[in-house]
Structure formats: C-alpha cells, structure tokens
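Subject: Sanity check before I submit

Could someone independently write out the structure tokens for this chain? I want to compare against mine line by line before I put it in a report. The sequence has 117 residues.
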Amino acid sequence: MRLTEISYGTAKPIEGYGPGFFRVGGHVLKGACLITPWDAGLWGGLDDTSTPLSLVGKIDVLFVGMGAEIAHVPLPFRDALEAAGIGVEVMSSPAACRTYNVLLSEGRRIAVALLPT
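---
Independent answer below. Compare away.
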C-alpha cells in the first residue's frame, strides 16, 4: 500500500478532539467552536446563526457536528443558512472533524461548527 502525505497549505486542520475540546493549530478550544480554513474560535451554539452567516460568499457548506450522536439542527438554523446559500450537513462531531479535514485537503470551501462530545 502506498501512503500519501496530506498537505493543507496554510489552512488549519483539526488536529484532535476529546471530551469537551477540539485542537486546531496547536490551540485547544473548549466548548462549541467554529473552524474555517483560516480561523478557529468559539461559537455560540445552535442559537448563533450570525457567526456562520458571516461566512456567506466564503464557504459553500457548513458541517455541523452535533456532539457524540447525530441529531437534527433546529429548523430556523438550517433555514437561515440555506437561504443565504450555505449548505448544511449534519453529523456527529467526530465524523464532522474527519470529513472537514478530508475536504480541507482537497481545497474545498468549507467550515465546521462543532458541539463538544
């Protein structure tokens, strides 16, 4: 089997996660966070649509990690983002971290909003 090293360029991949935290760019974020290829910071959770809406025109899809299990996002959250042209894909937070990193390595216009496990 041949392995290929993944290159992210200047983008910030998710380096690790665990109970209540995510590690990005050598920094640990505790609690809900929003990660883009160029930045990572805390996020107000599913009641906060303004932070992901600030990414209109910069991303095509927002992955939403719902914690340890998959759950539905509130309809007003999904509707606000989709009306602004941002697709919403919901999954568990571990799956969202992995998916984000794979698509980030492909240069996709993505971001991930994560609730801790």
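---
OP: Matches mine. For the report I'm noting this point. The CA atoms of residues 53 and 81 lie 6 Å apart.
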